[in-house]
Amino acid sequence: MARSAKGPAATGLDASMQEAAQAQRQRFKYTDDEVIEKPFNWKQVLRLLSYMKPYRKQLVPMVVMMLLGTLTRLAAPAVIILAIDEAIDKGGGDKGLLLTYGGIMLGLYVVQWAANTIRIKYTNVIGQKVIYDLRQQLFEHIQKLSFRFFDKRPAGSVLVRVTNDVNSLQDLFTNGVVNLLMDCIQLIGIAAILLIWNFQLGIAVMVTVPLMFIVSGTLRKRIRFAWQDVRIKQSRINSHLNEAIQGMKVTQAYVQEKENYQFFDHMNTINKKSWDRASALNQTFGPIIEVTAAIGTLILFWYGSHLLQTNVITVGLLVGFANYIGNFWDPINRLGQMYNQLLVAMASSERIFEFIDEEPTVKESGRARMLTGIKGDVSFDRIVFEYEKGRPALKGISLEVKAGQSVALVGHTGSGKSTIINLLCRFYDPVEGAVRIDGQDIRDVTIESLRSQVGIVLQDTFIFSGTIRDNIRFGRLTATDEEVEMAARAVNAHEFIVSLPDGYDTEVQERGNVLSMGQRQLLSFARALLADPAILILDEATASIDTETELKIQEALKTLLAGRTSFIIAHRLSTIRHCDNIVVLDHGRIVEQGDHDALMRHGGTYHGLIEAQYRFLSA
Ligand SMILES: Nc1ncnc2c1ncn2[C@@H]1O[C@H](COP(=O)(O)OP(=O)(O)OP(=O)(O)O)[C@@H](O)[C@H]1O
Predict the structure, then answer these.
(1) How far is ligand 1, taken at its centre, from the CA of residue 386, in Å?
(2) How far is CA 184 from the centre of its chain?
(3) What does the pLDDT look like over 407-447, one tens digit per residue?
(4) Same domain (yes/no): 494, 522
(5) Count: domains in the chain
(6) How far apart are CA 460 and CA 498, in angstroms?
């Protein structure tokens, strides 16, 4: 009864929850675009190894130690053979000789231990340095890449290359390459010793080797795919987690926690299943290797004892063979693992090199001059620009701005206001036409000198982790504490800064979580003032400031803008009323320009926008 009373409601709830989870699944679409492994590619391996070149000096002792370690390991069973045959078997127990062989064995182990310790030290040092260089080179290069590059990629995928992909090469450089060489030398060495010492027995005990390679190859492949699947599932969880944390406020505001939880639970379950499968497959590998190894040992003792009885081999040789065979399977096993690791590293290095080889689309010409001591005349000469081929964002913009003038850019959303600014800062280059400052095409001047003449206060004010003082000083790193404070006072930010617990030394988090939007904007004003650029851009800069702060800001802006050419993008038209020139954009074209009074008299688009805004505010 209890069950039937509860049943329909519970079933209904379950059904609705399942529907919600299903809807969530459809909402989150993850593309597994990152290929996890790539075929072996010699060119790429050589390119990777070239990162070791600067450390040639450390490479020499490392290789010497590696050879010494491997040779001593190969020599040890040979000494056992001699000790048994010469000191125990033949001489009927020559204690002196036995002690000598014992001493040699001890010596070999000490040398082997020392050689391995020194080798590991050198490999770690070289490996870490190579990874450091690679990460540094990658980051340095990414910083140079143009906006077009970032437009095409989500921030997460760029992040993953600098972290995960570089990390996956770390193992290869710190252990992989050296172990691979050591294992190869050991395998070839053992095979050669066995065949030289007794060809027939050598062939007999190694008869299982091809079998081992086949089993190991096939199984490893399956295990590799299973682990790849785990990585894909984990990377999905990571992307979802990233999105869930970034969008936490929206999730809570729309009360979507339960749905998010269910979706996460669904992905987590899939991940667990995938992990269980891979791990179960992995566990089958050990017994298979052991069985194959046991077959080899069985053949050794069966055929070996036969050869012993017929006096073809000695007891020492049989024991020595057993010893060598014991050292034979481990390298085979490791080589399989190494091969998998190498294929994963191939994919990671390909992704890293793809970024390193990416040329910035905004390039500096070899003859670029410094742009210094400018007046601030700006001209846009018949500019055509498109972000995506065939979809022009600017369609022939011509605009003359005299030094010291303030220009407002207005127009509907998507009309091209920010694009004009992007071209002035050379974040992109126009497809046609030219942007000039004081008559110089900005493609002929160095990017650094151009951007240091152009100050920008963006709509989304970025606050870096650090103190308030550091954040203002970002405008000019050499500014003194007094200059930082003066800039803050000039834009009316000083008052709120000193009211914070540690004043100018208050620590703020990435993106300025402890500050209000208005406060963040005031800080970025101070930052721009400190930079003292000849040309200033304010992109929606006053959008988030309340009326009282806005009055303060308007006052500060007069100081900030005095003597500078300025471009102001503002949706609130009241803030740009006093600009010298108001440029009205419509679908990438200038449709009107003039001062406020002239445009109002004209009664065109601007007049319409002012009317609409007035109606909206008084509604
Ligand atoms: N990174 C980009 N990649 C592709 N298209 C873009 C990109 N940035 C802008 N666009 C497109 O270019 C056109 C102009 O955009 P722009 O950002 O200059 O408009 P806006 O006038 O500043 O708009 P808003 O007032 O909304 O900020 C729009 O159609 C927009 O969709």
Answers:
(1) 10
(2) 33
(3) 999 988 889 998 999 999 999 999 999 999 999 999 999 99
(4) yes
(5) 3
(6) 24
